[in-house]
Amino acid sequence: MKQITSLRGLAIILIILFHLNPEHFPYGYFGVEVFLVISGYLLMKSLQKQQMQIRLGEFARKKVLRLFTPVAVIVPLTLLAGMFLLDYTDLATASSTGGYTLIGAANRFLAVIQSDYFAQDSSGNPFLHMWYLAVTAQIYLLFAGGCVLYRYLPKRAVASLFWIAGIGSFLWAYSYPIHNLLQEIGVPVWEQVRPTSHYMTLPRLWEVCAGILLAIYPPPL
């Protein structure tokens, strides 16, 4: 666990540096990817520790309370402050994002209204970074379904599903940069791909699957 804590600390530092000065730390956002891999690893370890007998109702209750109890306080207070600090357009966007945050769907809303994750100016929307909370909540829901499979299917079959899901997710996540690369070298490709996958859960699922597979097949370190 000391190594996990160190990785988390490194990830936090990278993310903070990225937001403070993205020009000098352009790859600090990789801290998010580190967090997702760690999440998958710890979720599977917790399932193994409980000998695959996790109680889904109790699991969901704890996760929802831990994630959304602070949000239920933060969102109204932030919107109240926004009434005095934001203009009408930014306040309207923040209100919508805050509403979707409360139901764990902020990432979906941001994917619809935004065009490029890396081109966003977060100064007008105080809830822009709540996409990660939504992704985390949705991963917990998927994990709860995976618990059922892990309980009734052979370990090898479930691991194969994680491999398939991870590879498919990886290809989806990198379809946009691959598309641009092919365009630049003159290869005929499909129509323009919108880079909204950075907000979504399924294109990031490969990182969680990587952590889960590390827990199932720990490296000999």
Walk me through the structure.
With 221 residues, the chain is mainly alpha-helical. Helix content is 70%, strand content 0%. α2 (30-49) packs parallel to α6 (131-152), α2 packs across α9 and α7 runs antiparallel to α9. The mean pLDDT is 81.
**What does the radius of gyration come to?**
19 Å
**Distance between the amino and carboxyl termini:** 14 Å
Overall geometry: globular
The ordered string of helix (H) and strand (E) elements is HHHHHHHHH
Kindly summarize this structure in a few lines:
The chain has 221 residues and is mainly alpha-helical. The chain is built from 9 helices and no strands. It has helices spanning 2-20, 30-49, 56-85, 88-102, 106-113, 131-152, 155-173, 175-184, 205-216.
Keywords summarizing the entry:
221 residues, mainly alpha, 9 helices, 70% helix, globular
Topology:
Layout: H1 2-20, H2 30-49, H3 56-85, H4 88-102, H5 106-113, H6 131-152, H7 155-173, H8 175-184, H9 205-216
